[in-house]
């Protein structure tokens, strides 16, 4: 089970996936317009755009607008990634889990479970860079939202096993598509 650094990175900023989805719809937008439409602060949207630029998913529209107020567009790679991003946002809204789904480690943790990691250390191993506390909180939140099931298995020592709950079946294929698109 390998870890996809770009997949984890895209969730590093809360607004990165919604920005990709919005840019796919509008085919270009200024940072202020994105902040207004998405409901995020300008600083948050700006840091998400910087992350997306570093991942080569977004770029300033060349030759358009004032250099201090550029319009942002998707790169070719960004277009590929924006499609599963739009589906993810729509699915999270449908399940009423958008805030949870856009937390830094929630979707990467769910993707790790879908990829076969079922114990805490296995999940934490896939989520390189996540502290034990961050993994624990992500699993707790996912369990609280009924997206994963936590089962205590007998043994020496007893251990917890994490599996996907039925509603997660609508999200995990989209996460796989997003991971594939990010390469």
Report on this model:
- The radius of gyration is 17 Å and the shape is elongated.
- With 183 residues, the protein is mostly helical.
- A hairpin with a 5-residue loop joins strand 4 and strand 5.
- The protein is built from 10 helices and 5 strands.
- The mean pLDDT is 92.
- It has a 3-stranded antiparallel β-sheet.
- It has a single domain, classed as Winged helix-like DNA-binding domain superfamily/Winged helix DNA-binding domain (Arc Repressor Mutant, subunit A, Orthogonal Bundle), CATH 1.10.10.10.
- The longest helix has 19 residues.
- Helix 2 packs across helix 5.
- It is 55% helix and 11% strand.
Range of helix content: 55-70%
The radius of gyration computed from the alpha-carbon positions, rounded to a whole number of angstroms, is 17 Å
Oligomer: single chain
CATH topology: Arc Repressor Mutant, subunit A
Task: Find the structural class using helix and strand composition.
Answer: mainly alpha
The largest sheet has its strands arranged as 1-3-2
User: Number of helical runs?
Assistant: 10
């Amino acid at each position: 089970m390998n870890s996809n650094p770009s997949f984890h990175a895209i969730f590093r900023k809360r607004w990165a996936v919604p920005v990709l989805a919005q840019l796919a719809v509008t085919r270009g937008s200024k940072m202020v317009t994105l902040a207004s439409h998405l409901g995020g602060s300008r600083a948050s949207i700006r840091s998400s755009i910087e992350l997306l630029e570093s991942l080569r998913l977004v770029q300033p529209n060349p030759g358009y607008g004032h250099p201090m107020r550029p319009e942002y567009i998707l790169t070719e790679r960004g277009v590929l990634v924006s499609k599963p991003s739009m589906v993810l946002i729509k699915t999270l809204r449908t399940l009423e889990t958008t805030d949870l789904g856009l937390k830094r480690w929630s979707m990467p943790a769910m993707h790790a479970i879908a990829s076969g990691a079922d114990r805490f250390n296995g999940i934490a191993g896939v989520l390189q860079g996540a502290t034990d506390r961050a993994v624990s909180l992500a699993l707790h939140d996912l369990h609280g939202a009924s997206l994963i099931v936590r089962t205590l298995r007998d043994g020496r020592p007893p251990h917890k096993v994490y599996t996907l709950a039925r509603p997660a079946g609508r999200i995990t294929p989209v996460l796989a598509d997003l991971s594939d698109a990010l390469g």
